[in-house]
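tokens incoming
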């Protein structure tokens, strides 16, 4: 993998910044990392990739909330199981829309919702920030690659005596 050092530096630095900010603002750190992971796992890049990560994750939050709320209203475990199956089918079907094409992102959002018992206020901010974190990591990596490539090129032009 080319540029491993640039990736490591940008990911490590921004992960530390995120962990510190999440602690200060009492955000769920691991939710942000899942939003970041969604950004890198889907196929789009740049702002488009960040939007897809956010859209798929947030749709999963909605579907997870629907399962939890619906199961609470319906009361019967068997009906709750059926609701889970129906909602899961819709989670997959929504992928026919290009902004929701990354099905694992939807499942990630849904699983986060289950893990945090549909606490939307604890889920949505770090999930969105996490997608932005992934985008920021890709931008910083690109900058570091450009800087190191330029440094390498300028050093090639130097002679030993010039250095």
């Amino acid at each position: 993998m080319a540029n491993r050092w640039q990736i490591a530096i940008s990911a490590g630095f921004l992960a530390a910044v995120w962990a510190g900010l999440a602690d200060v603002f009492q955000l769920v750190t691991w939710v942000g990392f899942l939003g970041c992971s969604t950004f890198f796992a889907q196929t789009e890049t740049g702002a488009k990739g960040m939007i897809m990560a956010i859209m798929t994750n947030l749709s999963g939050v909605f579907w997870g909330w629907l399962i939890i709320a619906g199961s609470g209203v319906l009361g019967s475990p068997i009906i709750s199981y059926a609701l889970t199956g129906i909602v899961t089918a819709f989670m997959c079907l929504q992928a026919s829309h290009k902004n929701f094409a990354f099905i694992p992102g939807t499942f990630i959002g849904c699983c986060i919702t289950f893990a945090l018992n549909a606490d939307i206020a604890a889920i949505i901010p770090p999930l969105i920030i996490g997608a932005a974190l992934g985008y920021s990591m890709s931008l910083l990596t690109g900058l570091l690659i450009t800087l190191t490539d330029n440094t390498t090129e300028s050093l090639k032009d130097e002679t030993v005596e010039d250095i």
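note: The mean pLDDT is 93.
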